[in-house]
Amino acid sequence: MEPHQHRGRSHWRHRLAHLLRPHSHESAEKVDPALESSAEGMRALWLSLAVLGATALLQAAVVMVSGSVALLGDTVHNAADALTALPLGVAFVLGRRAANRRFTYGYGRAEDLAGIVIVLTIAASAALAAYEAVDRLLHPRGISHPGVVAVAAVLGFLGNEGVARYRIRVGRRIGSAALVADGVHARADGFTSLAVLLGAGGAALGRQQADPVVGLAITAAILFVLKDAAREVFRRLMDSVDPALIDTGEAALRRVPGVLGVTELRMRWIGHRLRAEVTVEVDGGLDLRAAHDVAVGAEHALLHAVPRLTAALVHTDPAPGPGAEDPHRLLAHHAA
Questions:
Q1: For residue 121, with 0-12 CB atoms within 10 Å meaning exposed, 13-18 middle and 19 or more buried, which class applies?
Q2: What's the predicted TM-score (pTM) here?
Q3: Which of 171, 201, 295, 296 fits a disulfide with 180 by CB distance 3.0 to 4.6 angstroms?
């Protein structure tokens, strides 16, 4: 084989691999943890989809036999919870793509869009559960096989609680608000599954109204989860961060040799990773290389102090002195 042919085939193999598994050309110590966290999130999603999908199918079969509207609401909610793995999975895959000249910060914001989809899914499941419960109150009819409904409810609780613990643990470890919200959603589903037991018990005692009343209670529980999930997603969309992270970052910066003060520290989530913008004061007599070394030290200290921080842009200002001019006077007329 001619050398240029070998190089050509290697080039196309590389391009195909890049298409199937996008990667960044930044330093490995920054990229590998990011890719690893996305892969961990994907594993959590696939496991959740399998467990909740199997639970929903089992409950759907029991609904067809029993006619329980409370179990129907729980089944719909479980199915919706399982399907939320799909937009999150797409978001994690997109988040692996490298930044480019159009999306200069990468594709991590896709997770926030997935969070919106999750919130809308929770709202839709609440509306369906409420409709079915009201319809059953207006047109009462009993349920059959309450014992089977009770077993399906217990299985629903076990499946949801297991998935919830796993999603929340992984979401907190990798910093994904959407995955944590999905875990909280699954935990609420578990408790609504237990509520179905009340409807089954009421039916066994001849109380036909118990089943739709429990259905309404499930709707209320779904709305409570919706409030918490919507608040978390809204905060992430508005670039909210825990103030404790800012405190930690400022404390780390003040310990850096050469940093005389911290003028500004901003952080924002991009997907499940943090970026920071920093302004620090340094000795005005430092030359360019020395000031740059202080900035690199500041970024290094932040990367070690703040979990899930992947990069920080550090700007150095000369510390004010007697008679010194404002270093930003050229920008004064642009101030708000």
A1: buried
A2: 0.67
A3: 171
